């Protein structure tokens, strides 16, 4: 009698569309959706959708499924069992969907490792995820990423790893499930057993290499936006008026004789004031233009090539002994 050890695969998806595509691919591949869990940060309005109902707290309801919502998890809610929210210290409300949501909610709500280690990190550690990776998952969920976890046999997890990597999973890894007892093959339901007359230990296993892809977010640049003051000389034309005195002299015609004493008395004869305009220049500040700063995410697909190996079955026989 042989045994099977169950494992847990976990990884992050940057967007809801990527997470939804991965979960849908797992369902199409025949995975039991009760073994798939999604954890995401809740919000009143995400991706242009508002939550349709107040979501129940799974811890308060004994980890029972909460009300459905049309928000952060989008179409994923139609693929997984149960949905609820739970307030996490330092993160806020998070959405839990899938079988593992029950264990996470129960752990955080209790006084065990979840409370001692701090919310989601402690709950993930309780599921067998190393503390360092649990912190990464918690930080990324807090930042808006989607954590997807799958449990199953080594063969099932290997298939899940291929599907999740094909859909852009990040920080992906496979972990042993703590406290699980290897399942005897004889105890497994007949519908999922491989029927053979050969003991599992005697089977020939054919291996193949597959390309496994992880994405890392790296800082590629930095932009600082500020202001500086530049000076220049501005010229403005101002029309002004300036007065000038015009003195005209003409010869007297048919002038009459005057008293000499009066004519040569001396003294001021006439006084005239002369004016001119000057330019009085002042400065005022006006808004010349406005600048807004934002970021846009561009999507592209890069291809990587690598040589992989695959084993093929080689059969040498004598006589007609193989029935095909």
Short description:
The protein is an alpha+beta fold. Helices cover 20% and strands 14% of the residues.
Structural Rg: 43 Å
Percent strand: 5-15%
Report the average pLDDT across residues: 74
Largest sheet: 6 strands, antiparallel
Class by helix and strand content?
alpha+beta
The strand order across the widest sheet is 6-7-3-8-2-9
Uncertain residue segments: 43-72, 111-117, 187-197
Percentage of helical residues?
10-25%
Note the overall shape. rod-shaped
Number of strands: 10
Structural overview:
This protein has 7 helices and 10 strands. The chain is of the alpha+beta class and 324 residues long. α1 packs across α6 (154-166), α2 packs across α4 and α4 packs across α5 (131-142). The relative contact order is 0.15.
Q: What's the structural blueprint in terms of helices and strands?
A:
Elements: E1 3-4, E2 7-13, H1 16-28, E3 36-41, E4 45-46, E5 49-50, E6 84-88, E7 92-97, H2 100-109, H3 113-117, H4 120-126, H5 131-142, E8 146-152, H6 154-166, E9 170-176, E10 183-184, H7 260-263
């Amino acid at each position: 009698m042989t045994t099977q050890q169950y494992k847990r695969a976990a990884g992050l998806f940057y967007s809801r569309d990527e997470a939804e595509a991965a979960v849908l691919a797992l369902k199409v591949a025949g995975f039991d959706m009760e073994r798939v869990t999604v954890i995401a940060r809740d919000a009143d309005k995400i991706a242009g959708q508002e939550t349709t109902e107040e979501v129940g707290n799974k811890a308060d309801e004994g980890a029972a499924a909460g009300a459905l919502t049309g928000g952060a998890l989008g179409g994923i809610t139609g693929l997984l069992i149960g949905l609820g929210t739970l307030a996490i210290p330092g993160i806020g409300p998070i959405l839990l969907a899938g079988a593992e949501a029950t264990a996470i909610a129960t752990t955080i709500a209790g006084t065990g490792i979840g409370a001692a280690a701090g919310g989601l990190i402690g709950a993930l550690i309780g599921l067998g995820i190393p503390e360092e990776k649990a912190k990464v998952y918690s930080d990324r969920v807090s930042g808006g990423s989607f954590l997807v976890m799958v449990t199953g046999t080594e063969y099932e997890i290997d298939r899940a790893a291929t599907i999740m990597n094909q859909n852009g999973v990040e920080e992906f890894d496979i972990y042993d499930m703590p406290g699980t007892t290897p399942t005897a093959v004889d105890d497994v339901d007949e519908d999922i057993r491989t029927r053979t007359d050969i003991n599992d230990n005697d089977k020939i296993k054919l291996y193949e290499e597959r390309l496994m892809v992880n994405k890392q977010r790296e800082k590629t640049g930095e932009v600082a936006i500020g202001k500086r003051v530049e000076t220049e000389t501005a010229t403005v034309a101002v029309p002004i008026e300036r007065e000038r005195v015009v003195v005209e002299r003409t010869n007297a015609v048919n002038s009459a004789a005057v008293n000499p004493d009066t004519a040569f008395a001396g003294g001021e004869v006439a006084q005239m004031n002369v004016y001119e305009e000057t330019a009085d220049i002042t400065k005022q500040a006006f808004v010349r233009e406005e600048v807004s700063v934002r970021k846009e995410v561009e999507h592209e697909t890069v291809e990587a090539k690598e040589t992989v190996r695959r084993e093929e079955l080689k059969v040498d026989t004598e006589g007609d002994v193989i029935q095909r």
